[in-house]
């Protein structure tokens, strides 16, 4: 028996690029974050990848893909990409940049081209769970596909 899942811009993007994925639906909990999705799906939170939208001091957007159990050092990120400062985008600005509702942001199929930085240790995982473009919806993929279909740059800006 197959479960219906949403066909979001992210899913269309994955299909267009022939990327194999396994859809996972869960009950979205406000402010539950990756801990809640990992618990419901029975997976390690380290393998649940957050899609975080930031803005530079020049108001330019960027995305950081980070392990669910880690945070982004904005100071290290700014230094790494050679700018003055980086701050989390407001939910409204993040939606404007990506086209996705806050809590349902996927790096796939964003409304505009946005630079994407990936915590380097994500590539060491066998599989990851990343947002499929809707709250309560993750897709399981091989992390190596990130570099095949997205313009990514590997960084080391994660902190526990």
Shape verdict: globular
Look at the structure and give the mean pLDDT. Answer: 96
The percent of residues in helical segments reads 10-25%
Taking the sheet with the most strands, its summary is: 8 strands, mixed
Following the backbone from N to C, one meets helices and strands in this order, namely HEHEEEHEHEEEHEE
Regions with little confidence, pLDDT below 50 for 5+ residues: none
Q: What's the end-to-end separation, in Å?
A: 40 Å
Task: Report the strand count.
Answer: 10
Q: How many helices in DSSP terms?
A: 5
Strand percent estimate: 25-35%
Q: Which structural class do you get from the secondary structure elements?
A: alpha/beta
Structural Rg: 15 Å
Structural account:
Strand 2 and strand 3 form a beta hairpin. The chain is α/β, with parallel strands linked by helices. It is 24% helix and 29% strand.
Features:
single chain, 160 residues, alpha/beta, 8-stranded mixed β-sheet, 10 strands
Brief digest:
By secondary structure, the chain is α/β, with parallel strands linked by helices.
Outline the secondary-structure elements.
Layout: H1 9-16, E1 22-25, H2 33-41, E2 48-56, E3 61-67, E4 71-72, H3 74-81, E5 86-88, H4 91-98, E6 116-119, E7 128-134, E8 137-141, H5 145-149, E9 152-155, E10 158-159
Parallel strand pairs: 2-7, 3-6, 6-9
Antiparallel strand pairs: 1-8, 2-3, 2-5, 4-10, 7-8
């Amino acid at each position: 028996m197959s479960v219906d899942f949403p066909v979001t811009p992210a899913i269309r993007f994955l299909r267009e690029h022939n990327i194999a994925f396994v859809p996972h639906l869960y009950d979205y909990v406000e402010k539950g974050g990756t801990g809640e999705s990992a618990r419901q799906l029975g997976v390690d939170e380290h393998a649940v990848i957050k899609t975080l939208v930031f803005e530079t001091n020049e108001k330019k957007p960027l995305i950081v893909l980070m392990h669910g159990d880690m945070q982004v050092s904005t100071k290290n990120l700014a230094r790494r990409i050679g700018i003055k400062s980086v701050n989390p985008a407001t939910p409204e600005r993040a939606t404007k940049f990506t086209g996705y509702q806050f809590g349902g942001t996927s790096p796939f199929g964003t409304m505009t081209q946005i630079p994407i930085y990936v915590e380097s240790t994500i590539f060491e995982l066998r599989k990851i769970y990343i947002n499929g473009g809707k709250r309560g919806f993750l897709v399981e993929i091989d992390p190596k596909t990130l570099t095949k279909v997205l313009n990514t740059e590997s960084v080391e800006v994660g902190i526990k």
